[in-house]
Specification:
Blueprint lengths: L9 E7 L5 E6 L7 E8 L4 H14 L7 E2 L3 E3 L2 E9 L3 H4 L4
Length: 97
């Protein structure tokens, strides 16, 4: 899976229904006040969910946002995408509630 992070390293702080649904996270083990994390699950072979993921990733990788995408991993039969953005660029992504 991920070298740096594991699925259970995060606590869900907010769920959002945009882009087919995603979770905003915070790290359990350290202060992540300087970074906002997000993850989205997709079902393999589901093109609509994959399209939603691509739209979400566009927001995180938006020019000037300095977003990061981590390798996808599998958990409980679903594929998960983890991404982050520096806190100072959070509002620029348009992902804030």
């Amino acid at each position: 899976m991920l070298d740096e992070y594991q699925h259970d390293d995060f606590e869900v702080v907010r769920e959002d229904t945009r882009f087919g649904g995603f979770e905003e996270l915070k790290l359990r083990r350290e202060n992540s006040a300087h970074t906002r994390f997000f993850r989205k699950a997709i079902t393999p072979e589901n093109n609509d969910e994959f399209d939603d993921l691509m739209e979400l990733e566009k927001r995180v990788m938006k020019d000037g946002c300095s977003g990061a995408l981590y390798p996808m991993y599998t958990r409980n039969g679903r594929r998960w995408a983890l991404m982050s953005v520096p806190a100072e660029n959070y509002t620029s992504t348009g992902l804030s509630p």
